TrEMBL record:
The keyword Cell division does not apply. It comes from Helianthus annuus (Common sunflower). The chain crosses the membrane at residues 75-92. This is Transcription factor B3-Domain family. Keywords: DNA-binding, Membrane, Nucleus, Transcription, Transcription regulation, Transmembrane, Transmembrane helix. GO terms for cellular component: nucleus. It is found in: Nucleus. GO terms for molecular function: DNA binding.
Length: 108
């Protein structure tokens, strides 16, 4: 089956960041299952921002869940994303995501 550009963009997912998300962020299981299958994930993903920045972030697994781990805190630091920010991940393909983020209610 060939994936179309509309199918690869699904599922987008969002998150209102809490303090723990600054270091490691759980990925929603429904999104990971649709993207990669049950209990499957790549070892890393590329996160791209609207301003052209790109970050390699590694994925870890625990108890059947997947997390953005090594490299995720670099994204948070470099972009100035803080506790309470709202982030939206839109898949560009199976290992690349566009990240849109709002800090204090403002699109950055």
């Amino acid at each position: 089956m060939t994936e179309t550009s509309s199918s690869i963009r699904e599922p987008s997912f969002c998150r209102h960041l809490n303090r723990a998300d600054e270091f490691i962020m759980a990925l929603p299981s429904d999104a990971t299952t649709k993207l990669w299958g049950v209990y499957k994930a790549p070892t890393n993903v590329l996160i791209e921002t609207d301003d052209g920045r790109k970050f390699i972030v590694y994925i870890s697994e625990a108890k059947g869940m997947f997390f953005l781990f090594n490299g995720w805190s670099d994204v948070i630091t470099h972009l100035g994303i803080i506790f309470g920010s709202f982030v939206i991940f839109t898949p560009l393909d199976s290992t690349r995501f566009k990240l849109t983020y709002f800090v204090n209610g403002l699109l950055i």
